[in-house]
Specification:
There is one protein chain. This protein has helices spanning 2-20, 24-27, 31-51, 62-89. The protein is mostly helical. The protein is elongated, with a radius of gyration of 14 Å. The mean pLDDT is 81.
Length: 90
């Protein structure tokens, strides 16, 4: 897949996660924060997979693992921003 593919995958997952978030307008989550979380999630997953030799067989596991980690990073990032804003308003 290579690094350009990792960056594109993270960007797409970040923007899709931001766009599909149920309370996107209520929480005022920024699109660039979701994009950054997606790219960082895929990059960290790829580096961790290479260090642990999880991706030694080529690209078979790289796409699903990087996608799953990016989805978790975007979801946690958007939910944490939402809960922080709620606690500040109270």
């Amino acid at each position: 897949m290579g690094w350009p593919g990792i960056l594109v995958l993270g960007a797409v997952i970040g923007l899709a996660g931001w766009w599909l978030h149920p309370q996107r307008r209520a929480s005022r989550a920024r699109w660039w924060a979701a994009l950054l979380a997606g790219v960082l999630g895929t990059s960290v997953a790829r580096m961790a997979g290479n260090v642990t030799s999880l991706f030694h067989d080529g690209d078979m596991l790289e796409w699903p693992v990087c996608t799953a980690v990016a989805l978790v990073a975007v979801t946690v990032g958007l939910l944490s921003r939402q809960s922080t804003r709620r606690s500040i308003r109270r």
